[in-house]
Model the fold of this input.
Amino acid sequence: MELWDCNCCYGLPKKPPVAPAETIADLLREIDRAGIARALVRGASQWEQSPEVANLLVSEDCASDERLIPSWAILPPQTGELGTVEEFLAAMRKAGVRALWAYPEKHRYVLNATTMGGLLEEASDRGIPLFIDRREVPGSGLYALADSVLRDFPRLRLCICAHGSWGEDRYFRPLMERYPNFRVGTSRYELDGGIEDICRSYGPERLLLGTNFPETPMGGPILTLLHAAISDADRELIAGGNLRRILEEVRL
Amino acid sequence: MINEGRITREFVEHGRVEDCPVIDTHAHYGPFQAIYFPRHRPERVIDTMDRCGVRWMLISGHQALVDTERGNAEIARLVADYPDRFRGWWVISPNYPDRIPAELEAFEATPGFLGFKLHPSQQGVSLTADAYTPAYEYANARGLPILSHTWSGAGLCSYREVAAVADKYPQIRFLMGHAGYGDWLDSAKVARDHEHVYLELTAAYSVRGALEIMCEHAGSRKITFGTDHPWFDPHYGIGCILSAYMTDEDRRNILYRNAQTLFGLPLEVAG
Done:
């Protein structure tokens, strides 16, 4: 079974975690140690600095190892920092980027159809997944945001990552029920029986293995998934099959 | 992690290790207001324990955090029903100080409880408040353990308040639940400087690097494992410990040896 990590990071944010992973080599060392086959990577510079510069840096750093899959951050096309929607997609195609992250609070924009309509329409058509870190918006706000985005773009493959240790099933299960393309990363899905429950109620396609490295040790979400009371077929999908398929289906 | 040491390999392969049992020193029981639990009923809890190699769970009732009389009685029944898997923490509420003497009498008369559980954060009363004094004096006179929620922040239950209580009551074996979450180094120093203060790992294990700070400054003999179950799958916490940079001896200390020594729980360790 291959482990694909949908949410790991490197680089030094302004407020570093207890044990930061400063360089791509630091990240690779832990990927080796945990037995991760492929990792969707983002860099702290993408939210701490401008994606205008940081997106390309992440692509360059990930080019050092074929296990690393770069992901880019988005900005409103109206300001032109990342070009028009067409130019941005062309840049993604050239760099082989197949996944995007949105940081609406850190980058100060409204993630909705007015601001991002053109890009999210293209992402929906092309199967490009959009990831959002749960910590972007506190409380129920992030799930209200996800609901709003998916109401306008129901075909968008949207994944919320790194929700906290307080269980958030009451927030995200209604979204799973309503939107077939809504997913959750497992990095902090620590709830005993949670993975089994989701598989039974909504199917294993709704979960993607994530580690939230370097803030969280990789072993927690991995051991939880390895021994969840689900079928091996379901386990393989969550461990890597889902993310691999999503990325393979992207049409740039 | 996967190829580092036998304990890690066996947890990865089998989900449990026969000669490395687990004692969960910080668990709960029953539903709770702000979170959905699929596995909070006794038979499912025991299924989880068996799957993860958890030999003992030391539990307090979610209900007891609100209504001590009903909640502690609920845990007494659970411990009586499963005397070889559970021991109880008796919740003391500082918000109803008039009831504490009766609670202490009930504690004394009820088998299966190890000591007291305090939650200054949820109950909004500092660990150093006078309301706790009868419980502290009772525990200190008998050398009982106390498990308290501890967390970074001013005035309620940080390492500062723990140090003040520990200085005053040297016979209480004081478990810092969540290891003083956030104040990793200062909390480790309190455990290092007080022979009777220990760091309990619930949720703290999910902060990469925190465990290494605790081991370096307090030592693995001062750390116990816990999960807040049914909040968290024990495999999550175990996996974090397997990821941490430490020896298998450290892991054994944390997963069962320290709790076995502290609480005198019967434990057969294979091999």
Summary: Residues 105 and 136 of chain A are 6 Å apart (CA to CA). The domain at 4-248 of chain A is CATH 3.20.20.140 (TIM Barrel). Chain A touches chain B at residues 17-19, 33-35, 165-167, 169-170, 188, 190-194, 196-197, 213-224, 226-229 (CB under 8 Å). Strands of chain A lie at 4-10, 38-43, 68-70, 72-73, 100-102, 130-133, 158-161, 182-185, 207-208.
